[in-house]
Amino acid sequence: MIHKMKALYNNGKGSSIRSIANELGAARNTVRKYLRLDEAAITDMQENRERHKVLDD
C-alpha cells in the first residue's frame, strides 16, 4: 500500500494527500508519514516485521 501511495502522489504532481487517503481508506496523517519516507526506510520497515513490545520485558 505504501508504494501505491507514492505512485498516486507522484512527487506532488499527482493526487492530493486527502484524495489518496480517501481512495485507500487511510488517515491523512498516515499517508503523509509514508510519503516522507525514502525507499530504503520503506524496505527496512517491511522486512523487519518484528516489533518490540513493552510488556515482553
Structural overview:
This protein has 57 residues and is mainly α. The chain has one domain. It is 60% helix and 0% strand. It contains four helices and no strands. Helix 2 (17-24) packs across helix 3. The radius of gyration is 14 Å and the shape is elongated.
List the helices and strands and how they pair.
Elements: H1 2-9, H2 17-24, H3 28-36, H4 39-47
Helix pairs in contact: 2-3
List the keywords.
single chain; 57 residues; mainly alpha; 4 helices
Number of helices: 4
Shape: elongated
Radius of gyration: 14 Å
How many beta-strand runs?
A: 0
Overall pLDDT: 87
The count of domains is: 1
Largest sheet: none
Give the terminus-to-terminus CA distance. 32 Å
Q: What is the strand content?
A: under 5%
Q: Unreliable runs, pLDDT <50, ≥5 residues? A: none
SSE pattern: HHHH
Helix content: 55-70%
Structural class: mainly alpha
Short characterization:
The chain is an all-alpha fold.
